[in-house]
Amino acid sequence: MCGRFSQAYSWDEIVAFSQPLTVPADRPNLRARYNITPTTEVDIIVLTETGRELRKARWGFIPAWWKDAANKVGSTFNARVEGVADSRMFRSAYVKRRCIIPASSFYEWTGPKGERTPHRISAADGGLLAFAGLWERWTNPATGEEVISCTIITRAADRWMSKLHDRMPAMLNPKNFDAWLDGSGGRELLEHPPPELREWIVSTRVNSNRAPDDDPTLADPVESGEQKPEPNKESPTQGDLF
After folding, report:
1. 8-state DSSP, 202
2. Which pLDDT tens digit goes with each residue over 7-54?
3. Positive or negative, the Cα torsion across 33, 5, 133, 139?
4. In angstroms, rounded to a whole number, what is the distance separating the alpha carbons of residues 231 and 125?
5. Which residues are annotated as catalytic?
6. Where residue 113 falls among pLDDT bands split at 50, 70, 90?
7. Domain 5-231 sits in which CATH superfamily?
8. Where are the domains of the chain?
9. 190-229: b or e for each residue (b if 16 or more CB lie within 10 Å)?
């Protein structure tokens, strides 16, 4: 699964990545975040009548039919590719409300419980990753407030990723952005090889959801026993924590 990730980019970077983005005239500030946790707000890219737009969404999917409180919906920040098209929770959004969740990196943990070592995984070229996602619009029955929420789709890990976990985010190739967002493509898009990846060990401060998520040092290699970024050389293009 994917339980932590980061979003740190400029407007120029996200516009180029999205091919392109419909940018609001005022261009509100983009806040860099290095340790995003479930139920907090994230950026998502959706397809609208005016093109691709960057929107905000609660990371933790709430289906439109949900009648209870948001915190009762369970762990819906991930949706497994193996059942996403048929699941009551996600199937409507899979058909009608897809999104791309841009990511600078994501995290995975190794080691025994109580001594977990965090690894940061990013694109080998330093570019952004395109997580396949779903979004939904839900109305809180108690307050009438409308909430936009989202989930990251995960798949079985490839051979390189399997040294860290048996799951990984489903990552889209830029040439497939249209087919994913407009619904013309299916599961085959989610199982394409991911881009070339690299990973390195970071501070155990990442293990806590209390660590300030706007602290860029959370992404730095650890000073003691520093591990250099290790590229994924097994893929030509290329957990529940992932």
Report:
1. B
2. 999 999 999 999 888 877 778 889 999 999 999 999 999 999 889 999
3. negative
4. 10
5. 2, 108
6. confident
7. SOS response associated peptidase-like (3.90.1680.10)
8. 5-231
9. bebebbbbbbbbbbeebbeeebebebeebbeeeeeeeeee
